[in-house]
């Protein structure tokens, strides 16, 4: 049988991972990324929990990420007074005797770069400056992608890994819903010199429940403190979010400091010395009714976007990529593989979106929930989210509810 070729639109997390997963499944691909150099640093830094890391391991891509990240082992909750109200291991954190990979923190741009370089090392072609604007499918299923620079590319299928504001999503379904702004602006920053009494201990996420804003922070191995603040606010345009000039940086720092001004916690001390800040609109997308049409499919944020609060969007994109490759490996028809992919993934990813939305309801979390911190819904010990594993060698099942 002729080897199938996939067009992957978007060279972010899902794009590079899909290329590597398809490669392992014996399907060739080309990644078409809109940006000339790489994607921007929206979101600043992120955490990959062990479900995402284990999905990376399925295609042997975990080492590339472990090499450029650092561990998140415990969460300490602080009240607005600065008093500690509890410390517990991060769900899935630390080493365990099964060899499960624990949560890791890294910059989003670093994750992009690591996956991008690993995909290229495996022979994947990534073309930059290719912004998808249209696509047509022929009766035989072949698909032609058309780019803003006037060029086009042909393949047997097209995977839309083009993120939150996906063009592929609307090519598949012109009536597809747009992302919803959650009423929050996430502000992330990097502070090189934090006084020892204010800095979180190594391996610790300190979550500080302020009166008007919530701040989470952790220390990188070089001592720099990485922080994020959930701040209330409506959708802003690119200029309003800009933090590139000293004046813009000062404005955003002052904005966060004003929200922390009533607190006696170390939060303001951490924010005051920050040198770099990234401000992002927080969006989510509860349900995308149509994921695929003919030879085109969406995955990752293009199909389902969770608000940042559950810290799971990247892990979901990684899991999607591996499961889609398995479906294409095991099922002869492309539409059939897409249907199976959707049946294996939809419930899970929509549950994650819903969990994030619940956490997003409050800028200032209620203490009982705040104590649970990232990655845990309850104290039962069972965790449908983090304990999810993909068995690469097992064929995808016949039933709609089958595990990947
Ligand atoms: C503030 C914030 C914090 C977050 N924290 C976490 C966290 O801690 N843990 C976690 O797991 N997730 C986190 N996330 C979510 C995570 O960043 C996303 O879920 C993840 O990036 C989705 O990956 P993706 O590949 O689907 O999309 P993206 O990473 O957005 O990649 C899409 C790619 O497609 C390209 N593209 C777009 N349009 C086109 C086009 N027309 N043609 C060609 N290319 C195109 C883009 O340039 C980009 O490279 C956070 C998000 C935010 C905003």
Under CATH at level 1, the class of the largest domain stands as: Alpha Beta
Succession of helices and strands: EHEEHHEEEEHEEEEEHEEEEHHHEEEHHH
Alpha-carbon Rg, integer: 21 Å
**Using DSSP, what is the number of strands?**
19
- Name the strands of the widest sheet in spatial order: 6-5-14-15-16-13-17
Task: Please tell me what the overall shape is.
Answer: globular
- What is the residue-mean pLDDT, rounded to a whole number? 90
CATH superfamily of the largest domain: FAD/NAD(P)-binding domain
Helix coverage percent? 25-40%
Q: Which SSEs are present, and which pair or pack?
A:
Layout: E1 5-9, H1 13-24, E2 28-33, E3 45-48, H2 50-58, H3 62-66, E4 70-71, E5 74-78, E6 84-89, E7 104-107, H4 108-121, E8 125-128, E9 132-137, E10 143-147, E11 152-155, E12 157-160, H5 167-172, E13 180-191, E14 204-209, E15 214-219, E16 225-232, H6 238-241, H7 246-260, H8 267-272, E17 276-284, E18 292-293, E19 296-298, H9 313-330, H10 334-360, H11 367-370
Parallel strand pairs: 1-2, 1-12, 2-8, 5-14, 12-19
Antiparallel strand pairs: 3-7, 4-7, 5-6, 9-10, 10-11, 13-16, 13-17, 14-15, 15-16, 18-19
The chain binds flavin-adenine dinucleotide.
